[in-house]
Amino acid sequence: NNKSIAPMIFNGACNTRLFEAWVQQVLINELNPAQFVVMDNAAFHKSKKLKS
Predict the structure, then answer these.
(1) What is the tens place of the pLDDT at every residue in 16-46?
(2) Domain Tc1-like transposase DDE, which positions (predicted)?
(3) Which of 7, 8, 47, 52 has the fewest CB atoms within 10 Å, i.e. the most exposed one?
(4) Taking the mean position of all CA atoms in its chain, how far away is CA 8?
C-alpha cells in the first residue's frame, strides 16, 4: 500500500515541537502494530522524546 496515512499541511518551517505534536496527536493513532516509521536525518527528527 503506497498511500500516506497521516498527512499534515502547515505554513512555515517544521521544527521539533511541531513534529513531536504531529507524531503524538496524528501519526501514532494511524499506525498498526506491524508498521514502522522511517525518518531521515532532519534535525527535528532527533528529539529524545521521539526516541523513547
Answers:
(1) 999 999 999 999 999 999 988 888 999 998 9
(2) 2-51
(3) 52
(4) 9
Q: Which three cell numbers stand for residue 44?
A: 527535528
Q: Distance (Å, rounded) from C-alpha 11 to C-alpha 17? A: 14
**Helix intervals (H) in the chain:** 16-22, 28-30, 48-51
The candidate with the shortest Cα–Cα distance to 14, out of 6, 25, 22, is: 22
Q: How far apart are the first and last CA of the chain?
A: 27
Residues in the chain: 52
Burial (CB count within 10 angstroms: exposed 0-12, middle 13-18, buried 19+), residue 27: middle
Number of domains in the chain: 1
